[in-house]
Amino acid sequence: MTLDAPIAPAAGWPAHDxxxxxxxxxxxxxxxxxxxxxxxxxxxxxxSAQHPGSAAxxxxxxxxLPLGVTSSFQHWEPHPIAxxxxxxxxxxxxxxxxLLDLSxxxxxxxxxxLNPAVVAAVQEAMDVxxxxxxxxxxxxxxxxxxxxxxxxxxxxxxxxxxxxxxxxVRTARAYTQRHAIIKxxxxxxxxxxxxxxxxxxxxAEAGPEDAPTPVVPFDVEAGTVHVVPYNDLDxxxxxxxxxxxxxxxxxxxPVLENISIVLPDEGYLAGVRAACDRHGVLxxxxxxxxxxxxxxAGASQRLGVRPDLIALAKxxxxxxxxxxxGGSAEVMAVVGDNRMWHFGTYNGNPLVMAAAAAVDEICxxxxxxxxxxxxxxxxxxxxxxxxxxELPAHTVGFGVKGAVTWSPTPVRNYRDYKRxxxxxxxxxxxxxxxxxxxxxxxxxxxxxVSLAHTQADMxxxxxxxxxxxxxxxx
Length: 474
Ligand SMILES: Cc1ncc(COP(=O)(O)O)c(C=O)c1O
Prior knowledge:
Elements: E1 20-23, H1 33-50, H2 52-62, E2 83-87, E3 90-93, E4 98-101, H3 116-126, H4 137-150, E5 154-158, H5 161-176, E6 180-184, E7 225-228, H6 233-243, E8 247-252, H7 268-279, E9 282-287, H8 298-303, E10 309-312, E11 323-327, H9 329-336, H10 350-362, H11 365-388, E12 394-398, E13 401-405, H12 414-418, H13 422-434, E14 437-438, E15 447-448, H14 455-473
Parallel strand pairs: 4-14, 6-7, 6-8, 8-9, 9-10
Antiparallel strand pairs: 1-12, 2-3, 3-4, 5-11, 10-11, 12-13, 13-15
Bound molecules: pyridoxal-5'-phosphate.
Pyridoxal-5'-phosphate (PLP) is lined by residues 106, 160-162, 165, 188-190, 253, 258, 286, 288-289, 313, 323.
């Protein structure tokens, strides 16, 4: 197990430029619920009028796809917007509308849609071969790049974040010869059974806030999964003290990015690391969403806490299906000596490797810092709007990602998040959509400033938010 000293935050990030930001307004007033309801009704009518093509497409798609979508995250009522093309930071929907994309494939499109360098690399690969299922210099080259960038000794490629987190759990189980895991209440890590426990449970079914009980979906064989609140070292310690002998790993996002953005308290991640070490339990960071969006070496290095295993996906692939899991040589030895089997026909195929190498070239410290600067400027401008209108909301940012959280107080865990104002959040999201700004569907997400976004693009987000604030207080 890695017991190294925490790695220093990545060199090159100025000390005055912290990775995380959260601005709580000095004063706030409640919203008028009648006004929120009336505006929401007005905006849904506007949505329907603007998207006849998407409505028709939805009817057609329902014939072959459950909910009319290829992943249930893509669905919303009455129907989602169907997109037919994307370039840079912009989408074109089936009605021919241009939408500023601030979802960017849930963060996978960090380098922008059809980034010319990624397109060129993939086109070149098309002349060489698309699948060898053998070792290749292309895959070894990307493995070496990831090793350097993310501070890993060894890694393996997979095709999705779900596979990466699943194999990380299996690796931890094989290494420790224990089966149980601990996860964070409200945390999402893909579709693997053990990690489907307490993803977004109904608090009414999830036990006390400071000692949540695991909520297991009816259709999964989860095994033993303990659930702890984020930012609560006492509860983690209590579970470890009682069950450490059975626990293989603590699995968590270092910054929660599936319930908006929830930041670690000062010292929390270092505390988790120390608790894991005391009990001989591995620490697995799911960096599927953070990854390069957190900074050029990922969240663990940006925040200065080294896990034993990391799962990567989304931003590292430039829009092609690439994921990976990796960690210390000692832990990853279980893959080499077959204590844990890892297979996959498409793992490390030359098409996605070409894209990944291009992404690695493009995502320099300078390029990512510039996008982060745009994000911070937008967050600061939205802070001013919130303050001017005394909205019961605040902004949160991490790396190139940002979010408005509809609560006047900080959100530190899943239960806090469940107490935020989802009605205002829905209106805020819909308001943007109707003005040509697409943030991710579902209210759990955050926006992403890609390398293709400009200051003018981000101004559109700020202007739409200012217009909403004025309408809420009119
Ligand atoms: C934190 C986290 N882990 C894992 C996954 C699963 O990744 P994939 O959708 O590529 O299977 C996701 C997907 O959104 C995620 O947000």
